[in-house]
Amino acid sequence: MTKLPGVVLALGAGAFALGLAVSPVHADANTVSKSILLQDKGGEKESEPNPGALRKQALEGAWGYLKTMYNKPAPREDRAQIKAGWGPKSMNTPYTALVLQALHGTEVWSDDEAMFKDSVNWLVESQEAGGDWSFMPGVPQAKGMYAVYVTGIVAGLMAELNTDGAWKGKLNDNIAKARDYLKQAQVGNPEGAAKDYEEGKPGYGGWAYSKEEIGQGKKPASNMSTSSFAIDALHACGVKEDDEMWQRALKFLKRNQNAGEVQDEGWQATDSKGRKVKPAAKDSPDYGGASYAEGSSSGEEENEDGTVTFFSYGTMTYNLLRAYLFAGLEKDSVPVKLAMGWIQRNYTVERVPGLRDEKDYEKGLYYYYMSMGKTLNALGEDSVEEPERGLKHDWRKDLVNALKSRQAEDGSWVNSNSDYQENSPVLCTAYALEALRNTK
Questions:
Q1: How many Å apart are CA 121 and CA 67, to the nearest integer?
Q2: Can you give the pTM of this predicted structure?
Q3: 10, 55, 130, 155: which has the fewest Cβ within 10 Å?
Q4: 13-41+49-437: CATH number
């Protein structure tokens, strides 16, 4: 990557390509709520704080922290220890948009608040002519880098702001240009940057880091994380379910699901070493989940026949399920049921399910929390059932309690595992608030 001055993006390839997969046979991989345990014992329930009250406390504390970080740039001297702020002077487009989206519609939001108003206006004004947003506006070397990530985040925010309040109806042009950029960035779009990309190759139908980076170097042509940001934004921007974009996306999504029956007949992925990738067997703990990309994963198992099977893990499986729902699949469809089955077997708010090395249990934990909250909210169910153990989890309460217990005294969140720049309190706080926003 070209070395850039100032803030660098925390949302690159590795930022969301995290974790491996946890086998449901490990009993501690599943979180059992206190209320369920007390009911099983026949005892009287302990008094628990109201989730709504905890959520409000967490929000108010986080807003107090975020106000102190407004317009603070990242240090220039140490790319590995970024603790960037948000707002126009931070020159950090994705952090700013993530903070704004996580706060929009909450009790602390006001269209008249200068920090919100100035930040939104800065984002509107910094949109590139091609419809995308740069993570560092005005820095030529940053043009196009991770533009799908950044544009997906900002476009989703714009779609929300355009529905009511001070910006109602004023962002139509910005949204339309962003929508066109994201659609053209889809790998295999006949009118896009990768129009000649073969349908039979890994990556078809998904999204790479940007239009400009499709197929560069050792990066996969597409990945589940980038694709989920694009899909979230395109759904929010009103792309109809009959758009051809969704059919291409479904082909990509199914190829990334660890279940052979949802993939195209004759489809065969290979990894970077040229080995054939075999979907997980039905008795495998990875069955039904998702990995980072058809030919790229953070963890794998070598099979006796020389093939490899990628591990499924929580963040990408939640992203997969949400993408299926936005693409129009019904809850009783096979792909959705298989993804939900993996989630039920691996339900937890203690760590990223899928990690097989204890030292990695919390890699990208706050991104996982955000993905979990957004997906289960989109699913529209009040609980996650775990049939094998006869349990029913109140996911909203579990998520609120988990996040509140991890909040620092200053109102922020930060991961003790610094991978993927989750050593940035602003980034983790934005993720945590977005997760909480989806528990209402």
A1: 18
A2: 0.89
A3: 130
A4: 1.50.10.20
